[in-house]
Request: fold
Amino acid sequence: MKKTIAMAAALLISCSAVCMTSFAADETKVFVTVSDDKKDLVLIQEPITVTDIDSDGKLTINDALYIAHENKFEGGAAAGYKSSVGQWGLGLDKLWGVENGGSYGYYVNDKMSMGLADEIKDGDQIQAFIYPDPKDYNYYYSFFNAKKGEPVAVDAEVPLTLTYYTFGANGDLVENKLANAKITLNGKATDLVTDNDGKVTVKFSEAGSNYVSAASDSVNIVPPVYMVEVDPALTTTTTTAPLTTTTNSSTTTTTTATTTKTTTKATTKASGNSPKTGVKGAGLAVFGLAGAVATAFILRRKNEE
Reply:
């Protein structure tokens, strides 16, 4: 009898642990970048835990942008963000506190989205922007061949390629390599420019989180972003660091360097002011685990009596 009770208790505890793991796995985290009407990067790959804010039964761009504003915009989403359903579906009315009649854009994994109601998944990179001139749509989305790199050592060099989109005759996106773009590092100008193929190699000498962007005198571009964590504890065998490369919605990894450190730090840190974005159901799982232990204890006492 005692063995049966012990087995039952073990099963209950195991079930609770599995449920807890399942709840954690169900968390959807995306990374949100926003540039304003002055072409300044006001959010840079901000980690956002997404919940169904608008209760439409799915996780969407709208949910992610709303939560990003709730967490990071002064005054929250009520002050900085607004969306509504119009002729073409759910659309943006306000982004980062700017209302300009709808001159906004948003891409997911460097792929143009059809609308705010587009579904998103764990790990997606969302980039939203405001047109500097609401009446001038000659503002071109640009992106590096990678969004985020693996942690690298101090003075590691990373090769990047800068591309921007134009629209073809049928309205499809056409990729163009951007030459002579001026590279910035952590918001500061550098002497680096892209070559005729849009390529440039960036050296990272500052420990901590680093980000690369670019501007151009010849093409009016949305500022691109590449992020990497520079870890002084790492060493490399070559001068080129590994890249996690993103092309539209697919992700591949190109390894061009090795490191000697066996543990690495995360490239981003979660926001500390996100009360609405916890791990869904984790509290219930812990409660279930405690209940299983209590049940096992009661059954054992009853058997002994």
Observations:
- The first helix runs from residue 2 to 25.
